[in-house]
Amino acid sequence: MDDLRQKYLEAVAAATDEATLEDLRVAAVGKKGEISLKMRELGKMTPEERQVAGPALNALKDEVNSALAAKKEALGDAALDARLSEEWLDVTLPARGRPEGTIHPVSQVTEEVIAIFADMGFSVAEGPQIENDFYNFDALNIPPHHPARQEFDTFYMHRDEGDNRPPHVLRTHTSPVQIRAMEKTGAPIRVIAPGRVYRSDYDQTHTPMFHQIEGMAIGEDISMANLKWVLEEFFAAFFEIDGIKTRFRASHFPFTEPSAEVDIQCSWVDGQLRIGEGDGWMEVLGSGMMHPKVLQAGGVDPEKYQGFAFGMGIDRIAMLKYGIPDLRAFFDSDLRWLRHYGFSALDVPTLARGLSK
Ligand code: 2NL
Questions:
Q1: Which is it for the CA torsion 316, 320, 326, 332, positive or negative?
Q2: Buried b (16+ CB within 10 A) or exposed e, 61-96
Q3: Angstrom distance (rounded) from CA 14 to CA 262
Q4: pLDDT exceeds cutoff 60 at 334
């Protein structure tokens, strides 16, 4: 029995993995293990022999079992230590970067402009980008064969052969949205219409798709003085320059009478544009008093109501505000340049910016 004891205790001590321990357990105390077999022989012994061998075998079995358990735990700890020393993490390393979306400057500027006009009581109107020539031209006092139709570089959507109805067009301005708003709401009304517009033109300052925002206010005594105040209020908030000067130059649009192009004060210093400083001027929008025929086309009585309207390029004022030199960068290039101009997903919330004054 001492031989058995020595054999198994030494083997358990020498074991280096759990599989070996399990083999030893089966060989010693399993159903047909050596110690188990010895215990079965107790029945054949004399009572005197059994009184000595019984407790001794039980003690041996307990001893081997506890040696197995102790060794098993020790092996488990060692395995965990080995894993821990191998699979450590350096929690001080910088985190892996996540792909980060950005707000497009045109979207941001659109929101800024909307927020500023919302403060002055204007609501936002939207409409289709595929228009018919009534809303895009006729209603705006641009009849068929009027030379102004050619000036818009319109994209026409061809009809099937034999279909002689006038073609649809990609809207060349957001004015159709304002006509639809007049039809829907009537006067008095104050709306702005931001959105995509299309003209067949492409160079450093023109892309075939660009963004416009138009506004109008109609009431019984809306005047050009109201227009001037609203626009000056807008420029001061948008460019964050109190008291920025504006200049109204007489102009002509078919849809307004009288019409004015509006410039803002600026200067050039070392080839850099400075808005709101100096004695130079930069054209930023077109405007005027709504033509009576346009009011009528929108179902508004020009004998009772009058209103102002204006239109400007969102992309253009975004370029001015953020110093972006080439319009094509907005739509043709990849977006790495956006970060260069300071746009990121964590940018200042748009509304907070537009409303701070
Ligand atoms: C420009 C000029 C302008 C308007 C747009 C307008 C709309 C209606 C009636 C009358 Cl429904 N006018 N819009 C008026 C004057 C100028 O845009 O240079 N835009 C970039």
A1: negative
A2: beebeebbeebbeebeeeeeeeeeeeeeeeeeeeee
A3: 95
A4: no
Mutate to test the pocket of ligand 1, among 256, 257, 305, 319 (most ligand atoms within 8 A of CB): 256
* Residue located via tokens 């022999």: 49
pLDDT at 357 over 50: no
Given the structure tokens 């895009």, which residue do they identify? 136
Q: What angle do CA 164, 168, 171 make, to 5 degrees?
A: 155
Residue 152 has a pLDDT of: 74
Residue 5 CA to ligand 1 center (angstroms) comes to: 104
CB of 125 within 6 A of ligand 1: the answer is no
Is the C-beta atom of 216 inside 6 A of ligand 1?
Answer: yes
pTM: 0.70
Task: Indicate whether 323 pLDDT > 50.
Answer: yes
d(CA 214, ligand 1 centre) in Å: 6
Quote the CA–CA distance of 129 and 170 in Å, as a whole number: 6
Tens of pLDDT, residue by residue over 277-319, are 999 999 999 999 999 999 999 999 999 999 999 999 999 999 8
Structure tokens given for 343: 């746009």
Q: Take atom 20 of ligand 1 and give the residue whose Cα is closest.
A: 312
* Pocket flag, ligand 1, residue 275 (CB < 6 Å): no
Query: Residues with Cβ < 8 Å from 349, sequence gap 6 or more?
Result: none
CA of 213 to the centre of ligand 1 (A): 9
256 lines ligand 1 (CB under 6 A): yes
